[in-house]
Amino acid sequence: MSEAHIESAPRASGSASGGVGVGGPNGTPEAELSTTKAETPTPTGAPRGKAVARPGDRIFKSLATTSAIFISVLIAAIGIFLIWRAVPALSRNQVNFLTSREWVTQNINAMAFGVLDLFQVTVLVSLFALILAMPVALGIAIFLTEYSPNWLKRPLAYVIDLLAAVPSIVYGLWGLLVFAPAIKPLAVWLNEKLGWFPLFATGSGSITGGGTIFTAGIVLAVMILPVITAVTREVFVQTPTPQIEAALALGATRWEVVRTTIIPFGKSGYISGSMLGLGRALGETMALYLILRTTSQPFGWSLFDGGATIASKIALGYAEFNNNIQAGAYIAAGLVLFVLTFVVNAAARAVIAGKKD
Fold it and tell me: Where is the composition biased (Gly residues) (predicted)?
């Protein structure tokens, strides 16, 4: 029975005039309204309170579930493969794998390899790049969202996105041949003026030559900048317009709108984009392979140290991959990088979960 039928019911019917019960909005008794609602048709075969499951929904659900299971199994298979191939080499290792700085794998009967220096270089160069890239990416995202004129937004966004399409080996060549000589005066100045601080102390790398963590970190920051910027910009654009208009109506300036509305709304996306950039920095290979100069000196937590990251060390040792035992040493190092990536992702998810309003 339709709503129009309810409105056409006579006002003086039954209980309304007799004072029994309370009438409906148009004088229709409650019992009649209940009957009207009960007669509303429901989809054939669908239980009340449950969504209708059509064939397309079931197919899409099956595809999504299969994809999720496939990815989970694939990740587990990669982990199992790394462990399986690393165990034979680890069983022959004569030093502690996690605390040793040695890397001698030429003789499979006297192997001594550890990832301490590789791990520290990987963490320092990645964090240095992230610290440089995060504020720049945030500034670009805010500019594109709130301050940029309309005619500049799209071209500038394309230019930023194109940075992600440049091959890493090109970044490496540019960093080694162009960027390192250009920033040599800055590196020398930092070492001379701030050399008392451990990060800027003289390290194992050549400051004038440029093959240091300082140069590699700046180049790496440029490489991860588009990833962080793109994610942050897309989240900032989704800020509800009523919230922005309400802030403006209360007399807030443009910067106050950004500070009180846009940044709080998009902080989870900003952190997610930053962690995505950190993940790329941790696994970057070719650019660091070309820029960083290897050294036999122990790592001293200086930006002017040389060395190798886990990924670039694996690339440097490709000549030993013909032997399964020797290759197992590098696969063990890759396993450490695999676990480190998991830890970073888990930490990022924990931070984002704690930031939810």
Answer: 16-26
In order, the DSSP letters of 120-137 are HHHHHHHHHHHHHHHHHH
Q: What six digits make up the tokens of 348?
A: 């990022």
Angle between helices 263-283 and 213-237 (to 10 degrees): 140
* Residue 142 covered by a domain: yes
Pick from 309, 316, 317: which is nearest to 337 by CA?
309
Instruction: Name the residue among 201, 205, 217 with its Cα closest to residue 127.
Output: 217
What domain count does the chain have?
A: 1
Task: Tell me the torsion sign for CA atoms 214, 216, 217, 218.
Answer: positive
* Residue 29 β-bridge partners: 23
> For residue range 164-205, what is the model confidence (pLDDT) as tens digits?
889 999 999 999 999 999 999 999 999 999 989 989 999 888
Q: Quick one: average pLDDT of 48-61?
A: 80
Contact assessment for residue 328 and residue 89, using Cβ atoms and an 8 Å cutoff: yes
For residue 214, being part of any structural domain is answered with yes
Q: What is the C-alpha separation between 342 and 170, in angstroms, rounded?
A: 28
Residue linked to tokens 């680890």: 90
Q: Does some domain include residue 182?
A: yes
pLDDT in tens, 198-233: 899 998 888 888 889 999 999 999 999 999 999 999
Structure tokens at 138: 């945030």
Where b means 16+ CB within 10 Å and e means fewer, 164-187 reads eeeebeebbbbbbeebbeebeeeb
What is the distance between the alpha carbons of residues 290 and 167, in angstroms, rounded to a whole number?
13
113: β partners: 103
Q: Does a structural domain hold residue 353?
A: no
Question: What CATH number should be reported for the domain holding residue 242?
Answer: 1.10.3720.10
For residue 315, the enclosing domain spans 118-323
